[in-house]
């Protein structure tokens, strides 16, 4: 028997064996090679395979197959401090990747990882791994500020200069710009196409080419524009999309009315913010002779103009949503449509999708119809005007809208009925403050206004919720493929943490982590409403919730305690709503098997992409808000403010001011004691003084830093409200050797991650020094380009 054949037999024998290791004698017996010559050949072959590392011996001298690392694929999320986490399954905890095990992966890369340490639930330690390979680079281009080299440096390096990325997670990288193509001026904000990624010895260096100069860093609005482009959000519509929008008529013709119910004689109004231009919902309410209420919700029929296979539809799908920023709106569809023929402007005919509901005095919808219509709104109302009518009883406003006042009073009645019904079934009510950042014409923040939600805002919310639920239930009962807005049951481990936290505050939560209902959770919120711990409970409960998303499957909406829910009411600014309208029109004409099969196949991708685009828009909005708040506070360094503790972490405490600005007091700034982090109560406790810091505690702080570039605001603690002290757990007390408190800002979204014990914790450290004598990679790349060699 040849050695090659024996090798195959040995490997096959091990794979078939029930034992993990075999002695030489057991292997010889399994392969029937016990004769002297055969046995000698077997020993030689095993020795050769050991050298080839296809076999190995254990400590007892038994032969076994070498350990084969199991590689798994995931998405790498990089922290600005160099370490990261890999998401393998959105439903499972992430895998921690130490700084020296990232293999130069960048944020968003699809990577293969090898699990080095498995998770230990009892020790509250997550899994740890290392990146083995990078399958796909997510970042193909970056937006950043260009720093120019002088003439001598350009001649020496073949580089125009370098770009510092605007994205916080990439800010420590430098993108060196090859001396070809566009040569920007110093301080330009540019888009760079990445041509070479980090490698060993040059962990923070990339190379690229400038593909577009967006503007100069000092141009008005450039800060926001940089964030938008860095997030990959398109800021302009392609020429062909604009051309297509211009071909849409700006008036309705008689042919547009075929198959539509004419509601132009009804008293219908829009109610929106004073600065809104894309008015996509209108409402009417009246009392019926039988004592029930009639609610009509009429939504702009955007899908009539943005047709299925059109370039307008393709662009709307790619964008997924409109993005609302401090000083601008980036629309999902061209403004000629969103502010024109699709906007339900007053006293002009507009095409709509209508959901009319008959609602009894208990809030039950006893009858409904969903159909295509044409309306002509009576008035363009604002939230403030409706609030002046219904809450403030302002005489001049009452007189101005005297013909509509009776309908608004009925609207308030119906809203209160619908709200009471939602509360009764257990919908969770998080009253969150909204802040509007006011800016001057140059984009500089001048003030931060808190938005109070009055009855005008709340009644529109009630009516939209009723229509969304009605449409979702209607098509679910027809068993037709549909797109839903879902909010799933909280994960068990998050609920358990919430139970533990509430219990530590003396609050009893009814239900179990697997069966708890929204109503049970709302009872907890109601129980603590006027107590000091209310902010704590609200914060922890919000953290326990899953993110709402779009899905082709109906899982209900946990937060609303709704069995059926979709988004029907905002097709100007949300693509799923546009799809809902398209499905309504399609199914009114054809419910055949071919149609159902087509949409069953298409909807999963639409739902998934729409959820991702929504997340992208939210990230951009939050980043802009953080930047503008830091800019607003920049000239207030040294000033003192009252605030409350909004979050407590092992590296410091976050403070929120009354204007919603949030900043941090680093742990190493609390020099009066050594503080222990008590995770199950989200508290810091001084070892010697037992001084305690908890969420919701009132403090007085001084602003010490506010940096719009990093979006970071730092505070110094001046005073803290005295609260009952907590005990430091015995096993948390330090040894006699004193350790200095450590701290440092982390990316807030990763603040709840648990670092594995005995692993390379994220820590400040210097970058590896470059090897002497080795040319920077970007020089060799530039030379390869000059000689026409293709780079790998």
Automatic annotation (TrEMBL):
UniProt xrefs under InterPro entries: CSD2, NA-bd_OB-fold, RNase_B_OB_dom, RNase_II/R, RNase_II/R_CS, RNase_II/RNase_R, RNase_R, RNR_Ribonuclease
Lineage: Bacteria, Bacillati, Bacillota, Bacilli, Lactobacillales
Family: Belongs to the RNR ribonuclease family. RNase R subfamily.
PANTHER family according to UniProt: DIS3-LIKE EXONUCLEASE 2 (PTHR23355:SF9), RIBONUCLEASE (PTHR23355)
Compartment list: Cytoplasm
Enzyme nomenclature, EC number: 3.1.13.1
S1 motif domain span: 638-718
SUPFAM superfamilies the record matches: Nucleic acid-binding proteins
Gene3D superfamilies tied to this protein: Nucleic acid-binding proteins
Sequence ranges of Basic residues compositional bias: 767-792
Catalytic activity annotation: Exonucleolytic cleavage in the 3'- to 5'-direction to yield nucleoside 5'-phosphates
Keyword Methyltransferase on entry: no
Annotated region described as Disordered, given as residue ranges: 726-792
Entry protein name: Ribonuclease R
Biased composition (Low complexity): 746-757
Function description: 3'-5' exoribonuclease that releases 5'-nucleoside monophosphates and is involved in maturation of structured RNAs.
Tagged with keyword Membrane: no
Alphabetized UniProt keyword annotations: Cytoplasm, Exonuclease, Hydrolase, Nuclease, RNA-binding
